[in-house]
Write a structure and sequence with these properties.
The chain is an alpha+beta fold. It folds into two domains: about 130 residues, P-loop containing nucleotide triphosphate hydrolases (Rossmann fold); about 130 residues, P-loop containing nucleotide triphosphate hydrolases (Rossmann fold). The protein is built from eleven helices and eleven strands. Strands 6-7-9-8 form a four-stranded antiparallel β-sheet. A three-stranded parallel β-sheet has the order 3-4-5, with helices on one face. Helix 3 packs across helix 4 and helix 4 packs across helix 6. It is elongated, with a radius of gyration of 25 Å.
Length: about 325
């Protein structure tokens, strides 16, 4: 949203640069940015049903996107709509362009949005969670389509997702609390994640070769409040490997091998050596390092189990508090 200047008030860009063709998009006026939005940089939004106008035919909406920027000659607009639908593999393209959004399935609506995004031959296509609410088979089809379009049209694609199981491409950037914590080639990130957050995300994915009796290991705690971020490393309230430095100093990206970078005071290779294992079963905040914030008071269950997360502590308190007896009038 920041790249395209679509951040709604009271949200605003408070710092940094967005470089595109030797210009900073943050400094452009509304009209200047409008010339780039949809023309040179296009976006596929998360929910195609709410992104398409329900009372207008899909073909009209795709044509409108092209006419708004004059990048495609007017006489080529309608024929290009048919070509785009064929490109994104919509059967009977000419007829389906006359249909309304409600006449399309979820996967077909997403294909229509991809066609709209490609209509002006953009240099960058931003795909925001393009597989949300789609079943696994359709997800695979959409991802395969995006890969093929990248090769055929030479359009750079930025795929935004929370699901590492659908990550495809050559380079991955992992973000936490609005900051890049790790980036590098796909193979290196998946085979040897170095930031505890990336490592935790990969551990939470179900695997075919995993023991069925083994529980999925979720990341303890909740993401931080972006208005009131913690000091130091933003992941330290949830990190099992945190050290004292994590509470005060924010780590910067550093190379850990080839084009692989991570921002952490305790890289996973270092954690493996320190604790002598690759299999960590206790992933509560500070569980491995034993480091806790100043003023930390441990919460312990009657059985002697240490609680770390506020949710667990609140649950313990609620269980220990007797329910109020009902009051009746005699």
């Amino acid at each position: 949203m920041s790249i395209l200047g679509l951040v709604q008030r009271p949200g605003r860009i408070v710092g940094g640069e967005i470089r595109f063709k030797d210009q900073d998009l943050v400094k452009l006026s509304y009209d200047e940015l409008r010339e780039i939005r949809g023309r040179d940089i296009a976006m596929i939004f998360q929910d195609p049903l709410s992104s398409l106008n329900p009372v207008l035919r899909v073909g009209f909406q795709i044509d409108e996107a092209m006419l708004a920027h004059d990048k495609v000659p007017k006489e080529q607009v309608s024929p290009r709509g048919v070509d785009l639908f064929k490109l994104v593999r919509v059967p009977d393209a000419a007829r389906r362009l006359r249909d309304y959004p409600h006449q399309f399935s979820g996967g077909m609506r997403q294909r229509a949005m991809i066609a709209m995004g490609l209509s002006n031959r953009p240099e960058i296509l931003i795909a925001d969670e393009p597989t949300t609410a789609l079943d696994v088979t359709v997800q695979a089809q959409i991802l395969e389509l995006l890969r093929d379009l990248n090769e055929q049209t030479h359009t750079a694609i930025i795929l935004i997702t929370h699901n590492l199981g659908v990550v495809a491409g050559k380079r991955v950037i992992v973000m936490y609390a609005g900051e890049i914590v790790e980036e590098g080639p796909v193979e290196q990130i998946f085979e040897a994640p170095q930031h505890p957050y990336t490592w935790s995300l990969l551990r939470s994915l179900p695997r075919i070769n995993a023991d069925r009796r083994e529980r999925l290991r979720s990341i303890e705690g909740l993401p931080p409040d972006l208005i009131k971020l913690p000091s130091g490393c933003k992941f330290h309230p949830r990190c099992p490997f945190r050290v004292d430095k994590c509470f005060t100093d924010d780590p910067k990206l550093q190379y850990v091998g080839g084009a692989h970078q991570a921002a952490c005071w305790v890289m996973m290779d270092q954690a493996y050596k320190t604790y002598g294992t690759h299999d960590f079963t206790d992933t509560r905040p500070g569980a491995m390092s034993g480091v806790h914030p100043p003023g930390y008071t441990p919460q312990v269950t009657p059985e002697g189990r240490l609680l770390e997360t506020p949710a667990e502590a609140a649950e313990l308190v609620s269980e220990a508090t007797p329910a109020a007896e009902p009051v009746t009038d005699d």
